[in-house]
Amino acid sequence: MKKSGASAILLELGNLFEPLKKLQRPDDFTYFINKIGYDIPYINSIDYNGLGNAVSSLQDIIKEIIDALQGQNENQTMDKLLLRILPECNNLIQVLNREIPKIVSAVNALSANTASLEMILKKTMDFMVCEYLLRHRYKMYAVLHVLGIIESNPIHMVHWGRLHLIVTNQKSLFNQAYSWETGFDGNEFINRLLQVLYAYGLAGGIYEVEGRPELKMPLLQRGIYPDNYQEVNINFSPIPIEGEAVKKAGLLIYPSAYNKFDLAFELGEAWELQVEGNLEIGNGIAGLELKPNNPLRLIYLQGLDSITDAADFSFSVALNKKTAETIYILGSEGESNFYITGFSAKLLVEKKGDTSDFSIASELKKSGIAINLTKGDSFIKKVIPCPEFNIELDLGFVYSARKGFSIKGGALAIELPLRKSLGPFEINTVTIALEPEETAFPVKFSSNIKAALGPVQLVVVDIGFTTALSFPDENGLLPGDANKLGPFGLSFGFKFPGGIGLSIDAAAIAGGGYLEIKDGNYAGILYVDVKDKIAVTAIGILTTKLPDGSETFSLKVLGMAEFPPIQLSMGFILTGIGLAIGIGCTMNAEELRRAVYTNSLNSLLFPPDPIKNAQKIISDLKSFFPPADDHYVFGAMVKLGWGGAVPLVAAEVGIFLELCGKPLSLLRVALAGIAHCELPNPDNTVICLRLQVLGVLDLENSMVSIDASLEASKLLSWPLSGDIALRAGWGDNPRFALSAGGFYPGYRAPQGFPALRRISVTIGEDNPRIGLFLYLAATENSVQFGSQLLFHYQKDIALIGLIELDGNLSFDALFEFNPFAFETQMRSWVSLKCDGDSLFEVFLDLRLSGPNNYRARGRAKFEVLSFDVEVDFDKTFGEKMPELPQQTLFPLQILAGELDKPGNWSTVTPLWAQNRFNFRKDNDANQYVDPLGGLVFRQMSVPLLFELEKMGEAAVPEDENYLDLQESGGNIASSGVEDFFAPGQFECLSDREKISRPAFEKMKSGLQFSCGKIEIPVANARVIHYGKAVTYETKRQERSAIHNDYRPVFSAGNKEDAVLPAALANWQRLAGRNVHNQAKIKSSTARLSKIKVREQKFAVVLPEAENGKFICTQTPEGKATDLTYARAGQVRSRMQTDAVILSSTKTV
After folding, report:
1. Distance CA 1029, CA 1092 (A)
2. Which pairing describes strands 404-408 and 413-422: parallel, antiparallel, or unpaired?
3. Distance CA 3, CA 402 (A)
4. 486: pLDDT confidence band, cut at 50, 70 and 90?
5. Packing angle, helices 186-199 and 138-147, rounded to 10
6. How crowded is residue 39: how many other Cβ atoms within 10 Å of its Cβ?
7. Residue 1066, phi-psi category: left (phi > 0), alpha (psi -120 to 50), beta (remainder)
8. Where are the beta strands (DSSP E) in 471-518?
9. Dist. CA 1011–CA 972, nearest whole Å
10. What is the pLDDT of residues 414-442, one digit of tens each?
11. How many C-beta neighbours within 10 Å does residue 607 have?
């Protein structure tokens, strides 16, 4: 007779205590103590008979209970057996309480290892569990052993603290079990893996290969040797480390085969094995190399040359159940059981680019848990009115070396139907959930409770209690809050409700509220409607803990009031106002934009039916305004109408500001709105429009965006839909894109631009059906537009069949401005089918591009029944515009000219000095530079470090097609400056690249200079020496064909001199020095150009009254010449007031 679920559990429980039953003699007990890790001699102070007899009596009662449950012992009733088992359990507990302290004392007296009550209990339980699994559940033992949960050498040990790692952190589990990252114990791993093969009846063995052990696992063995024998193996080979016997460098997994084999074959009638891969390995052997902290590699072992690490590959082995026969994993048919109908398992190894992964996936199809309580007592039948029910599950379990363990299609929770009323309270379901943690396995029992008290209805969500089974650590200690249950710990606790809902429906007032409590975070909604005149909605969200467990403080409060219309001017009415305040939160612009396209913006603007939709509203607001320290959001909302007492147009509008920092600065501004109208009136609607709009001014990212979506709109009964978006940026992010309905086919939308639906109207719901789709777009360098018309009609005609008529007509156009070009395409087709077979079809695809003569290409097809004609064409027509003599521009000359422009030079103020100092404005036209900041040169004419193929439509000399700008000499440091350039102006792009490549890309445009050293020589000194003379260079660099890098090329040659702008001359004036600038541009085949900046000297002189000449004054050092500007100022201050300072720069 089949065992029931209860009898099976009791039987297994009896088997678990089997090792204790054998403790009848001193030798048995000594053997047992030695097996759990304590080396002791003979002990005669223990009541062995009492302990063994107590366990035996308990097992006898358990066996009688099992027989009664199975109907084999009709003379025993369950009540009598339960009354007998209680004293036997009490007797066992008394024996254990009396004998265990003796055991601890004896072990401590006779063994070198110190024992404690907790450690002996833990080791005893470990021994019992391991022996039980070895004798009765060997498959489970082998799996837990290879996972490192169970150890059996030298003693039985269960690492309870590692159980949660199976789900939470598999890498840490493998490290603890096999020292994967510090010295992989590969031999132990393959020995344990071999135990798994034996446990499941699979062939395999460990063989010596080139002096090292290797596990060979056959996937296929069939035929008769040597005639038609076939064998396919998977081999696991630890990678040795030279000079190390135990530690390994990693693991090599590779296939081997004897004779040729099919890649898909059957394993009996019920199972099929499939092997797939996307890498051709010919006749060689390829293996997968796994090493700690290294990507997965495919290596060739023999028969082929080496393979590069960049090669992509995938290899999978899948096992599928073909039949629909039900397999019972636990229990049996007609009883409570866990069953599966379909099953598949797959091992996958793949590498794509820099990402590699090893995964094992299994899927239980049409599986479930059947609960049968028909044999329960009267109490069970009263509490659960439906004693037979089935919980269907479609579960998938996936382990990935990169992503970890996950469950698809379900969770570790079940929901049991209850439907029980207790007075005013109603309990519909009970949920049981398992949530594994590091040191415990807590189980949550919760339910939703409803209560009705007159006009008030109360709902308490997810309330119940939790119980946690905790495991001892390596020292046998349990968590402090756990009650001891043998070697384990058991704790109970109240589970606070996840949410509380309240609704009121009275004559004068209606409304309700909802409060959500989860992980220290609180959210609530309150809605009150007074006599259908005034409705108030309040929403509050308080976040004190982030998902990672860290503490924070974020408060969001929204309040909205709706009331009878208040007349405004020009036919507008005000029907609602609102206010939003957020402390410690930011504005997630991306989530707000997504809300436009998912019809979720109304969660922010006067949400309808807030109590019914409370959970969605709270979830949306959390995503709109996530926590962020020192950020604040403030908003105001209004609800407007226009067109009379019953508004023709209604709108909800809100403006939201985000501020941050100290002092506060404006970061973002968002304008959100929902507009809807029904014309000419709601009772006789011809057109119904509902538009959601969001505009965001993002000052932090220098961008403005507008998103709009048409939803739930109709023209007569024809649906209207479509999306509109705008993205415009400035500063370091200059871009522009505006689209209503999307872009030209094949055009790559700018980064971050949403996927838009075409502006569309559909006439007819199904048959016939006509759809019209439109789009219009503009970017920095293009205009695009297009339309499409679709038609469908079908009719089922007797004696003929189902007739289907379909048609399409579309037109798309793309115009680019610089350089000017256009491309258009037109596509049309009409088809007639009968029962899916084509009777007639006409197809035309035409593309036209220009303007420098015109090119038409495409395809035309005509088909009637089985006769068809297809023509491809590519024609060029029109007069080709004469090519004008191509202009040649000289980038080096242009760059030198840019260096002479004062507007290209600017100062940089250090961050610490911003808002602290201001330059004094003199009447002269000089530009002054902060000596502690720096100097920036940038130009927008020639991109640097970029291979120039052209400039506009002009050619570029080959010896000037790659330029750079660098500084050299002195204590001046420099770094590159980047700006946006249009690549199409400097590179020859194909038509496809013009469509898909970004209009602007960042390239080097100049340099930023900063001082290398500032010295204050002595006390009371008035002079600050700031750097030395600086030399700047413009270089042309050539690309090396061998190393694909860049190298400067130098040569001699001179051209005329040029002078740098005055801004550079004033760079050091504030520090007491002036700089005289003289530039020389050197050019030759290699085009090396240097720009030198030299230090200027000064002299103090007196004017000679008679002839207007100057006389140099005397100083203690001699004549007052060749002085710094600061020193010249000191000399002049000690002389006559008519002394002047003049430059005395010498020619170098």
Report:
1. 8
2. unpaired
3. 42
4. low
5. 160
6. 12
7. alpha
8. 483-485, 488-495, 499-505, 509-518
9. 5
10. 666 666 677 677 777 777 776 666 566 67
11. 25
On whether the CB atoms of residues 789 and 721 are closer than 8 A, the answer is no
Q: Give residue 48's identity as a one-letter amino acid code.
A: Y
Angle 48-69/5-16 helices, nearest 10 degrees?
A: 170
Please report the pLDDT score of residue 21 as a whole number.
Answer: 66
Model confidence pLDDT, tens digit, residues 255-285 = 776 655 445 555 556 667 676 665 444 444 5
Which of helix, strand or coil describes residue 547? coil
Residue 51 parent element (H or E): helix 48-69
Cβ atoms of residues 590 and 517 within 8 Å:
no
CA pair distance 558, 1077, nearest whole angstrom: 63
In contact, 649 and 575? CB cutoff 8 Å = no
Domain boundaries, the chain: 1-163, 262-410, 412-497, 503-716, 754-883, 891-1096, 1097-1148
Residue with tokens 């009709």: 74
Taking the CB of residue 461, how many other CB atoms lie within 10 A of it?
19
Structure tokens at 738: 């505006």
User: Residue 785, SS3?
Assistant: strand
Do the beta carbons of residue 916 and residue 895 sit within 8 Å? no
Percent of the chain clearing pLDDT 70 (strictly above)? 62
How many Å apart are CA 601 and CA 617, to the nearest integer? Answer: 10
d(CA 946, CA 891): 12
C-alpha–C-alpha distance, residues 288 and 167, integer Å: 25
Q: In one letter, which amino acid is 1046?
A: Y
**Type of residue numbered 346:** K
What phi and psi, each to the nearest 5 degrees, are found at residue 906?
-145, 160
Other beta carbons less than 10 A from residue 1068's beta carbon: 24
Q: Write out the two tokens for 98.
A: 């009396």
DSSP symbol at 951: B
Using the CB atoms, write b or e for 311-328: b if 16+ within 10 Å.
eebebbbbbbbeeeeeee
pLDDT digits 0-9 by tens, 663-706? 888 999 999 999 989 888 777 888 899 999 999 999 988 899 99
Give 694: exposed, middle or buried? Use CB within 10 Å, 0-12, 13-18, 19+: buried
Residue tagged 């009409």 (tokens): 830
**Nearest residue to 654 via CA among 726, 558, 571:** 558
Contact 500, 460 (CB under 8 A): yes
Query: Is the pLDDT score of 1022 beyond 70?
Result: no
> What is the SS3 assignment for 624?
helix
The average confidence (pLDDT) of the chain is: 74
If one counts every other C-beta atom within 10 angstroms of the C-beta of residue 747, the result is: 18
Q: Identify residue 451 by its one-letter amino acid code.
A: A
Structure tokens at 725: 């978006």
